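Summary for the lay section of the report: proteins are chains of building blocks that fold into shapes. Here we show the chain for F-box/LRR-repeat protein 15/At3g58940/PEG3-like LRR domain-containing protein and then a coded description of the shape we predicted for it.
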Amino acid sequence: ILGEIVSLLPTKEGARTQTLASRWSHLWRTAPLNLDCRDLPADDDGILLGAFLSAHEGPVHRLCLPSRHLRDRAAAVDGWLRSPTLDNLQALEFYLDTPVRYGSFMHSPPASIFRFSSTLRAATIAQCHIPDNAVEMLRFPQLQKLELVEAKISEGSLASLITSGCPALESLLLKTCGSFHIRGLRINSPTLKFIGVFSMFVELIIEDAPSLERLLHIILHVKMRLTVTSAPKLEMLGYISEYADSKMTFGSTSIQVAIYVSCIAFSRFLSDIFFMSREVTYQLYLLMS
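The coded shape description reads as follows.
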């Protein structure tokens, strides 16, 4: 029980349990850990993380690293990910901690992430370039949650990643991927239950998504055409646009936006939950054909 308590604590507080009592001193070294660099001093996070992974005797289930390390410490990141402590890693997050400059060079995720193909269930990839040849090799059969933040990836590769690379995917969040030339996306997935789009997409087509329950597009000032061909379980639609030529099509029914499309927008961009509830109401003017 004590080991489970330690595993639920933030990294810094978990390490401090060694000073509580003699019976707690060994727990930190063997407890399953969730290592989050946001809990560490920014200047020393790389040094401390390396020390943790070298000294820890138990498994690490979740690892969160700032995406800048892919640029500044690429070799070190690759080495960390090869640590035996991470053999059963279930969640990997490269989180965005610095502003993205459009046109800046982006590194690809290290090759060592492929070794988590049989264990990884949740992933956040931020400020990375995911080339087509890498997507062809990506296979994460257990992955259920995927978040791409400021990621550079082609439309074809993104569709392939959703369809064949992650066959168990249930939650997908795309945040400003459109800044890197993704102008549209076609979804075919038997497992997806949630899609969140905070991006500059021009067109989103849901061709076949029998499990989809929530589809949220959360940008006020971007025109977008949404087509839903088959999503029989869709219950929540969070789509907001102020452009008059935005259009939604459900089967054979088209909805043309005259002024605003209004709905309840549930938007939460926590990577481990993938949505939060925030109510936004606008006036609704619809023309149906």
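Put simply, here is one thing we learned. Residues 1-287 form one domain.
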